[in-house]
Specification:
The chain is α+β, with helices and mostly antiparallel strands. The chain has 5 helices and 8 strands, in the order E-H-H-E-E-H-H-H-E-E-E-E-E. It has 2 domains: 5-88; 92-148, Nucleic acid-binding proteins (OB fold (Dihydrolipoamide Acetyltransferase, E2P), Beta Barrel).
């Protein structure tokens, strides 16, 4: 089975608690307990990406590291950080959307809407082959969403 690494470390850390200290702690726990290629990958331009199994392994590693001094969640003793990382909804990081508008002037972007009707700006490699009505998966990257998956094989066709 092919592993899908679709959760950015920044998003996982931001979902838990804001701040650079938590991200640094996540990096320490990742280096200690997780295995690259199985739980996460480090990509040159995108940074560290986790798989769903990697996020679960990170939660387990946080639980192991929690008892140690300086571990994530050790300050409050309640394990709130572990509970929060286990409750990360996929919908925050990844969504199924439908294309509604393709820009002719700027081929790197298009507009799509999710099942609730929210309009999203999606960054793609080239929007030439996309047509309104096509469904696709997008990944959150700040204010913009990125298309994840193969490009259409022909205009309007997967």
């Amino acid at each position: 089975m092919k592993r899908v690494f679709d959760m950015r470390e920044q998003d996982v850390a931001a979902t838990l608690l804001p701040g650079e200290t938590l991200r640094e702690r996540l990096m320490d726990v990742r280096a200690k307990y997780l295995k690259e290629g199985r739980d996460y990958v480090a990509l040159p331009r995108r940074g560290v990406m986790y798989s769903k199994d990697g996020v679960k392994a990170l939660a387990q590693a946080l639980r192991l590291d929690e008892g140690n001094e300086g571990g994530v969640g050790a300050s409050d003793g309640s394990g709130a950080a572990v509970a929060m990382i286990q409750a990360i909804p996929d919908v925050i990081l990844k969504k199924e959307v439908r294309v509604v508008k393709v820009f002719l002037g700027n081929r790197r972007y298009l507009h799509a809407e999710d099942d609730k009707g929210t309009l999203l700006t999606v960054r793609v490699r080239d929007n030439e082959l996309f047509l309104p009505g096509m469904e696709m998966e997008v990944l959150k990257d700040g204010a913009v969403w990125d298309y994840v998956g193969p490009m259409p094989r022909a205009r309007g066709r997967w």
